[in-house]
Structures are given as C-alpha cells and as structure tokens.
Design goal:
Largest sheet: 2 strands, antiparallel
Shape: elongated
Structural class: mainly alpha
Number of domains: 2
Number of strands: 4
Radius of gyration: 22 Å
Number of helices: 6
C-alpha cells in the first residue's frame, strides 16, 4: 500500500507547487513586467487618485454626463466580480420591459431628441461591464450634454470625435468611445 500512496502524494505535492504556486507567480511577474498598466487594472488616475478603470464601465446617472451601456451584473451595475449578461432573449417580457424603461429614461432626459435611439444605450452586453459606447450612442447624447453644460453641440461632437477609437484591427466591431474618458474630459473642460 505504501508503494502506491507515496508516489501519488509526491506527485500531488509537486503538481500543486508547480501549478498552484510557481506558475501563477511566474505569469503574474511577466504580466507586471510586460503589461504593468493592464495587470494593475488599467486604472484611470485623476490628481493621483484612481477614478475608475479604462476596462470596466461605470454608472453615470446625472444628465451632465454621458451614460454608458446598461449593465446586467448583480447585485449592482458594473460589478466586476459578477460579470455576465442577463441571458434574457429578445422576446422575453422582462427584457422588453427593461428596454422600454431605458427608452423612457432617455426620452425623459432629452424630450426634444427625435433621433433613433442606438441599441447599445438600451441593451446590456454579454459581460455587463462595457466601458465604451458606439459613436452613435455618444452622438445621440450630445445635445443633452451641451444643454446641461452650456456648451455648443459642435463642441461636444468634436470632443467625441477626438476621443473615438477605430475598429479593432481595422475590421472587428465598430468605432467606439470610452465613457469615462468623455466624462473626465467634460469635467476638466477639455472640449
């Protein structure tokens, strides 16, 4: 019996050490050395203090700010420890009600806006953590932001264009803009 258990325990200990200790430390070290900002959470700093992450969306509710994509994470929006979509299909009554509520909120915040509402402003993503919205989603909100901030619509549209990011590798996805970057620029008067 000893001849069976001893090699099994030695192998178990060796694999635990390699896979549970050495490998994670090595990968973490490589990540910190090669991609320090990303490994540290892609934190966005303002006056030396973290105000968010470039990779995780935040909930903005004031009419003075751009609103990001809705989050389906629980128990609170944009909860990075609970990443995941709602799994509600397009015909699910709960999904339909949620979208209708979001449409009503957008219309209540900007009643004069007759433009079609971009889908990313009323539906959550698969991760529920999107930090970015489409350019259409940002431009849709430009008039409200301009009115609330006493700016011209052209100033806000120009700010969006300056911070827009192209498709990944030139063909994946669509052009987009980071909501936190827009809102920080608004607060800093960078339009």
């Amino acid at each position: 019996m000893k001849s069976i258990f001893r090699p099994a325990l030695v192998l178990f200990a060796a694999l635990t050490l390699m896979c549970g200790v050495l490998y994670p430390f090595a990968i973490s070290g490589i990540g910190q050395a090669a991609f320090a900002a990303q490994a540290g959470g892609s934190l966005v700093l303002r006056d030396g203090q973290p105000v968010g992450s470039a990779l995780i969306g935040q909930a903005f509710s004031s009419a003075r700010y751009f609103w990001g994509r809705p989050s389906a994470t629980g128990p609170m929006p944009n909860n990075a420890t609970s990443s995941g979509g709602s799994n509600l299909g397009p015909a699910n009554p709960a999904q339909i009600d949620a979208v209708k509520g979001r449409i009503e909120a957008l219309k209540a915040a900007d009643p004069a806006n007759a433009a079609p509402i971009p889908v990313d402003l009323v539906t959550a993503s698969g991760s529920g953590l999107d930090p970015e919205i489409s350019l259409a989603g940002a431009y849709y909100q430009a008039a409200r932001i301009a009115r609330e901030r006493k700016l011209t619509v052209e100033q806000v549209r120009s700010m969006i264009a300056e911070r827009s990011q192209p498709q990944y590798f030139g063909f994946f996805g669509e052009p987009r803009v980071n909501v936190l970057a827009l809102n920080l620029a608004l607060d800093q008067g960078q339009y």
